[in-house]
Amino acid sequence: MLYPQEFDVIVVGGGHAGTEAALAAARMGCQTLLLTHNIETLGQMSCNPSIGGIGKGHLVKEVDALGGAMALATDESGIQFRILNSSKGPAVRATRAQADRILYKAAIRRVLENQPNLLIFQQAVDDLMVEGDRVVGAVTQVGVRFRGRTVVLTAGTFLDGKIHVGLNHYAAGRAGDPPAVSLSARLKELQLPQARLKTGTPPRIDGRTIDFSQCTEQPGDGMPGGVNADSPVPVFSFMAHAYGGAAMHPRQMPCWITHTNTRTHDIIRSGFDRSPMFTGKIEGVGPRYCPSVEDKINRFADKDSHQIFLEPEGLTTHEFYPNGISTSLPFDIQLALVRSMPGLEHAHILRPGYAIEYDYFDPRSLQSNFETRQIQGLFFAGQINGTTGYEEAAAQGLFAGLNAALQVRALGGGNAAASAAGAISYTGERWLPGRDQAYLGVLVDDLITKGVTEPYRMFTSRAEFRLQLREDNADMRLTEVGRQLGLIDNARWESFSRKRDAVSRETERLKSTWVNPRNLPAEESARVLGKRIEHEYNLFELLRRPDVAYGALMDMDGGKYASSDVSRETLGALSEPVVEQVEIAAKYAGYIDRQRDEVGRAAHYEKLRLPPDLDYMQVTALSIEARQVLTRHRPETLGLASRITGITPAAISLLMVHLKKGG
Ligand code: FAD
């Protein structure tokens, strides 16, 4: 049966990529359909119910800055929040939350169900409708044919998914969910380059059988007894203040820490001969940064203990997630290894750990908007692009969804007037943030230029311009362009504009407020600045000093000692995020300016477009290998070309000479 409505964007898969993709396209005014196996699993966390962390938290804030759902859903469901690296510089500080998985899913579902322009339909997609080299829709398991101008595929770990526990294996998308076998076969038929990856999850434990007195308690920030008990409980979303800030979080809970020991390691080794990883049953490559416990014991044989975090899965369940013992060893070994750890001697396992193998697609065959090169209108996002993690998936989903919407607009479809933003000023056919603009830009650029050899996850070390890609300024970097794209609703826009204006007004005020040895008494100068000032300074210059805090400076300010056109009082009370921006801008101004210069120097060739029909084989100055690589990848810009594995700076110079000659 052909469904009577044609959609602008059809999103297949209701995981973290799919939900953000569908929401983004709908926010931009596209008639959007989200097709997924099961409405009950919308926003389901397949593994650990935790969001954020180093690099990942940055992505969540960026998704939020572009109007996405993940951060607010985490604020609504988070039962423990921490700022990681809180004693380090702002570039690497990252928010991490433990979420109640039921509340998280409920929050995502509510957002989806209330999103204008978005419809949801529960059914497996078995086939794609392709006419010529363009996708025109999707066909479900019972033969309902949905026509769509674009399709965003976000099937996660489901494509030909195979679960392994010991030497047993069975087909599944994840535990309890069916695999997508027909769709996998169809994609193979379409000859999109693909391979297999694997990931794993630990057994879950019934908290009633844990002896917590044998474990170390780990409260979150702002909770009594924690390392950062005096800090406020963090929030994720830039909009959290509109809903009461940390007051929107449910009750907070501690995590607990136990550890493996030599007996645990002996038990794990005793299962190696029945491990699907070591017996060659699993062919897919797993995440190096999130290894299974058997992999850890094998690779770091000299370590005789590993820390294991016992993380609550929610407020209404006894289920605990033992972070650090992901495993696909046989169940008898799983039980013995769990019970060998302090506090877990009588533990009952609620769900066995397992590994899952699945198809992924080589992201080097995607264009810079995540559209496949082979089939027009077909976009890929999330785990199927070779990544791992909810945050990486959400960021890609939003990216693919918004680019599908831009394509629809370029084809003369969509209804910009129905977008979240009303008036839309972005007129491009695709949007890709630069590596200096967003972690999202780093993620997309890395995937399409380098591909993956193992599941890709985000780290701050992947970003060369990380001083300007901080969590705290994700809104300053992205909300404005998000508004132009049509992703940002009026409430968020007004809130952002107020913050941006307050930051700029306060920065200007500090720069035009001067103190000098005459108007600042020696003792006041010594109290706030640690010494007497020797000549005239403006307050912004003083704030650049590492040991001078904004609060202390304001004590000294107030028009009492200083002269200024705008007095502090006329600005009203400044919120914590505004003060944070002003302070970071002052303290890191030197470094940030230097990084801006670097970005400026790189920019001259970064955006230089390479002709799509350029015959690289004729660029004889290049080595044969470089010509072959460039022919295979067909990068859109010189910047993208420069980051392809195998393309050297010398090759880029030669290419530039060739282009200048008009080649
Ligand atoms: P998913 O969250 O997998 O969502 C896919 C969605 O698509 C599902 O809703 C599914 O029902 C739907 N779907 C699939 N095929 C079809 C179809 N044909 N028709 C209709 N609907 C379809 N990440 C980490 O960061 N660390 C970890 O340790 C970790 N461990 C993991 C362990 C396991 C066992 C699994 C399964 C995942 C693990 N992950 C881990 C990965 C994390 O779950 C994913 O990165 C993330 O969920 C990917 O999001 P996604 O939206 O791409 O896909």
Automatic annotation (TrEMBL):
Protein family according to the UniProt entry: Belongs to the MnmG family.
Compartmental location: Cytoplasm
Annotated binding of NAD(+), by residue: 286-300
Complex formation: Homodimer. Heterotetramer of two MnmE and two MnmG subunits.
Pfam families tied to this protein: GIDA, GIDA_C_1st, SAM_GIDA_C
PROSITE patterns: GIDA_1, GIDA_2
Biological classification of the source: Bacteria, Pseudomonadati, Pseudomonadota, Betaproteobacteria, Burkholderiales
Ranges in coiled-coil conformation: none
InterPro entries documented for this protein: FAD/NAD-bd_sf (IPR036188), GIDA_C_N (IPR049312), MnmG (IPR004416), MnmG-rel (IPR002218), MnmG-rel_CS (IPR020595), MnmG_C (IPR026904), MnmG_C_subdom (IPR047001), MnmG_C_subdom_sf (IPR044920)
Protein name: tRNA uridine 5-carboxymethylaminomethyl modification enzyme MnmG
Cellular component terms (Gene Ontology): cytosol
Cofactor: FAD
Database matches in PANTHER family: GLUCOSE INHIBITED DIVISION PROTEIN A, PROTEIN MTO1 HOMOLOG, MITOCHONDRIAL
Signal peptide: none
